[in-house]
Amino acid sequence: MKSSPIVEQLKKDILGFEDQLRTEKIGHIVTVGDGIVRALGLAEVRAGEMVAFSNGTKGVVLNLEEDNVGIMVLGEITGLQEGQEVSATGELLQMKVGPELAGRVVNALGEPLDGKGAIKAETTRLIETDARGVIEREAVTQPMYTGLKAIDAMIPIGRGQRELIIGDRQTGKTAIAIDAMIRQKFEPAETRPHCIYVAIGQKRSSVARLVKTLEEQGALEYTTVVAATAADPAALLFLAPYTGCTLGEYFRDRGQDALIIYDDLTKHAWAYRQISALLRRPPGREAYPGDIFYLHSRLLERASKLSKAAGGGSLTALPIVETQAGDISGYIPTNVISITDGQIYLEADLFYKGVRPAINVGLSVSRVGSAAQAKAMKQVAGRLRLDLAQFRELEAFAQFGSELDAPTQAKINRGQRMVEILKQIQLAPKRLSEQVVLIFAGANGFLDTLPPERLNKYEVQLLDFLRTQQPAILEEIEKNQVLSPELTKKMETALTDFLAIFIQ
Questions:
Q1: 315 - beta bridge partners?
Q2: Angle formed at CA 132 by CA 130 and CA 138, multiple of 5 degrees
Q3: Which of 331, 346, 373 is a domain's end point?
Q4: How far apart are CA 216 and CA 503, in angstroms?
Q5: What confidence category does residue 20 fall into, taking pLDDT thresholds of 50, 70 and 90?
Q6: Which of 113, 108, 114, 77 is nearest to 95 (CA)?
Q7: Residue 38 annotated among the catalytic residues of the structure
Q8: pTM of the model
Q9: CA 94 to chain CA centroid, nearest Å
Q10: Catalytic: which of 46, 137, 192, 367?
């Protein structure tokens, strides 16, 4: 008698049955707090391991205690309650990376926020990794132009450097970072750094406005925005800088260059302080946990210039820190200053006087970038810092109303014009050649006869004159990046000719 197809199928299934035992490490939630969950039963879980709750929410283990583990919830905590199951995944926190993230806005987990569909990147990387060792690094030798005359001339930044931007709120810190990203559009496509902007604890409207600005300026196509806004849980604010850094390392490790902006690390420290307090870690100075220095050092140490053997890529970091009433001796500012390779200090008083960018030359320094500065800029701006510092002292002295001798008055007049020519409006970064010509004009007395209030007009018309009448001068500076005696002579002639036209 012939058996039915159903019986045959059952026989086949029974013969092919394999007894596979699958084990899962499952625990249960004991307490639910503000973004923090404590769970029992996860005896073999590791610090930094991903866990999954029964409702699909993810978390990361931060605290390992004798009888429970402290878990930071990545997302909304509203669906979690006591008694719910939580299972260990055996994996550390990862994100998708790749060129597919260019032009996208993502959250702290690398998930899209811009409504442009899923990110089709196939490569994944761990969000928390160790910084590259000393042997794999090399000295910073290539410039990372910001397009701002005052910075590129006096506080130059190199590719692979970490330069802190510090100052009170509303003094133009983010404006410098945005200009630096926009300036990269002048670079050739093959050497253009991929830009990453990490927004930590900002309003969503501010992030949307920044994305729109980058799009209008043509900079979004090579930029990724990582947004952890004020409405997001502290866990995402804590993770966002590491997410951005992981993406930057992807480009660096492929032999390319990347520029990352952390805006700002003060709010990052606040988020970590909140998480630590909820995890009942002992507080230290200003209620920050004892490892607050390690929080930022393990992030900023990941920025580097790799040696040729390691691929030759670079990751340049521009962290931003907010001060209170100009106090750079605060806990977080001094921590970050000691980790970075210099700082750009923005002073509120200068900002309100109309000096923008409001850079305090005395407190700002670049400990690396001068090695990467173009020779042409070194030639024209070598004494600029010293001259401006002397001008500030003489200007303060002159306020007492004492009579000044002719050389001192000449220095004050020159200083006033240099301050004026270094001013720059937002969203108008300059090429190297344009900066060199303008600083050369100021340092060599071509502006001494002009009233300071006319220098803005002078700058616009001079650059138009050079682009139309003498383009070879700008092209030669861009190409050779050095001022030969012949080129210097041409510049002097062009500036003299233009001054005669401008005065008329």
A1: 258
A2: 165
A3: 373
A4: 36
A5: low
A6: 108
A7: no
A8: 0.93
A9: 21
A10: 367
